[in-house]
Amino acid sequence: MDEVPDPRLATGRDAIVRVVAACVCGSDLWPYRGVTKTIEPKRIGHEFVGVVERVGDDVQRIRVGDFVIAPFYDCDRTCANCRNGFSTSCLHGGWWGDDDRDGAFADGGQGERVRVPHADGSLTPVPDPAPELIPHLLTLSDVMGTGHHAAVSAGVGPGKTVVVVGDGAVGLCAVLASRRLGAERIVAMSRHEARQALAREFGATDVVAERGDEGVQAVRARFDGSGADCVLECVGTKESMDQALRSARPGGQVGYVGVPNGDPELPVRRMFSTNVGVRGGVAPVRNYIDELLPDVLSGAIQPGRVFDLELPLAEAAEGYAAMDERRAIKVLLRP
Amino acid sequence: MDEVPDPRLATGRDAIVRVVAACVCGSDLWPYRGVTKTIEPKRIGHEFVGVVERVGDDVQRIRVGDFVIAPFYDCDRTCANCRNGFSTSCLHGGWWGDDDRDGAFADGGQGERVRVPHADGSLTPVPDPAPELIPHLLTLSDVMGTGHHAAVSAGVGPGKTVVVVGDGAVGLCAVLASRRLGAERIVAMSRHEARQALAREFGATDVVAERGDEGVQAVRARFDGSGADCVLECVGTKESMDQALRSARPGGQVGYVGVPNGDPELPVRRMFSTNVGVRGGVAPVRNYIDELLPDVLSGAIQPGRVFDLELPLAEAAEGYAAMDERRAIKVLLRP
């Protein structure tokens, strides 16, 4: 924890958002664990909801006082990639905490205030949300949209069979997204009792605790010795990608959203002989908010149940430790 | 060329087909060139049409005298994979010339007669085709179905933009398939004049002769600096796969049918950051015949135009040489 200067409007398209709730992402654990090196202190956190305090002169859609959801990146929603549904590839956007765009810093979300570039494109206003909705709305920043992206990328739809590899918050949201999209059977791979229970509540019909060859066999045994139509890879390691590819039936599809860690290999010859496709990547959650928000507001889905620990921002360090040690699925932070 | 014993019925589900027309596949050039080793003489050829001479006792749908199209593999069309649309992964099928299934040999198609296992599943009867239709029907054995598979795997449909990498017979059929599926713009990558011309007749709206970085730039320049919705990889080398991946827009899809040669790499980190998916493989052409045959019979598509050299079977060696030296796009052989 450190004190830093308040952010300032750098362009006419910016907004300054006071953070109401933020959270810790599995990917935040990489610098925490030293897997990615951190040379000098930097601001972190990319998931937040908050209230708009100031807007630039060119901002038209977002107003001071709005409660807003921020995706884990900024985007203008007008470029060709945004219009194609892939706002993560916005030609003018970028990432929190990593950039010095427009001559100013775009802060991390684990803080009190954030400068949001392209406020009109990036932010989604939600009129006066009830306090109990806030954790659910916060998941639309990343984790629920990312689980949904895994499902969409794998082609989940009515009647499909699904395997979800990974029981972190993204994997659990991928189970919820698969049920929401009408999957007939959903196998959650998890060896952790509390996560297994939440997976079942989110719609998993089966839980497989085995991994590796045994995990593949346990999955295939549930599908006449073959595999599932759709496999959702929500981890990002070589082992999890291998598990995913071998859990798909011939002609099936792997939707992957785990940030690739340690260069997972895609065995192109095996993919070729089995016609198993691979599709996914960094989730365009801003594009998905329009579809998912009504179900959050109605209570049809309650993705915020992945938060099993809530801490004041000042205790962020304990939040990281709890996630690192797998004592918590996902930690919500309140400034 | 060699004389071998006539094939015999080995199971009640077999048929013996007298070959009327066969052809040479680009993949047949691999053993020809020594890229894949051939230890001892073996029968070759996997694309043929012909007339049924004998059927086993359990064959019900196929009759002696039927003119039939054989796919480049056999399949029962009743197993789960066949029903899922992926008969190339038939749980009971196999490949011509490679197997000793049911205690008998399934011959190659470049010969006078072939034993066809699972005749009811594998063969498609075509009542009394006009002689001029035969080349077009023959393409449903492999090359047209494979081009169609590239398009289907890449998600080609009405209004989509398409790039086809590879100007062999499969690439040209992929152009034709893309037009048939309603693509709005089709860029054929070719530096060979005759193939460029056929690509245009098949529906290509643009031809790009450049390769590598220049090829990628020439493609992107046609799509606002981005790339196409769908890229059809019809070669199978490291270079062609790289070309394909870099020609897709963020969120685009590569459909690949080139048999992977020299382990093309799939750069998972770049795929992740751009959301470019990869899907394809060995084409389930038997499943596609039902959809494509009516358009061949009506003349709506004329995929047999890829045959620009026709030889008697006895001159097969010249057919291989002509394709190897790129003097011919694809060679039709008549026993």
Describe the model.
2 copies of one chain form a homodimer. Chain A has helices at 29-33, 80-83, 119-122, 134-138, 143-153, 169-180, 193-202, 212-221, 238-247, 268-274, 285-298, 316-324; strands spanning 15-23, 48-55, 67-70, 73-74, 94-95, 113-116, 124-125, 161-165, 185-189, 206-208, 228-233, 248-256, 277-280, 307-312, 330-334. Chain A has 335 residues and is of the alpha/beta class. Chain A folds into 2 domains: 15-142 and 284-334, Medium-chain alcohol dehydrogenases, catalytic domain (Quinone Oxidoreductase, Chain A, domain 1, Alpha-Beta Complex), CATH 3.90.180; 143-280, Rossmann fold (3-Layer(aba) Sandwich), CATH 3.40.50. In chain A, the strands form 3 sheets. In chain A, strands 1, 2, 3, 6, 7, 14 and 15 form a 7-stranded mixed β-sheet that branches. The first copy, chain A, has a 6-stranded parallel β-sheet with strand order 10-9-8-11-12-13, sandwiched between helices. In chain A, strand 11, helix 9 (238-247) and strand 12 (248-256) form a beta-alpha-beta unit. In chain A, helix 5 (143-153) crosses helix 6 (169-180), helix 6 (169-180) runs parallel beside helix 7 (193-202) and helix 8 (212-221) runs parallel beside helix 9 (238-247). The longest helix of chain A is centred in the C-terminal third of the chain and has 14 residues, at 285-298. Chain A is globular and about 60 Å long. The termini of chain A are close together. The A-B interface holds A 80-81, 84-86, 88-89, 153, 224, 226, 241, 249-251, 253, 256, 259-260, 263-266, 268-269, 271-282, 284 and B 80-81, 84-86, 88-89, 153, 224, 226, 241, 249-251, 253, 256, 259-260, 263-266, 268-269, 271-282, 284.
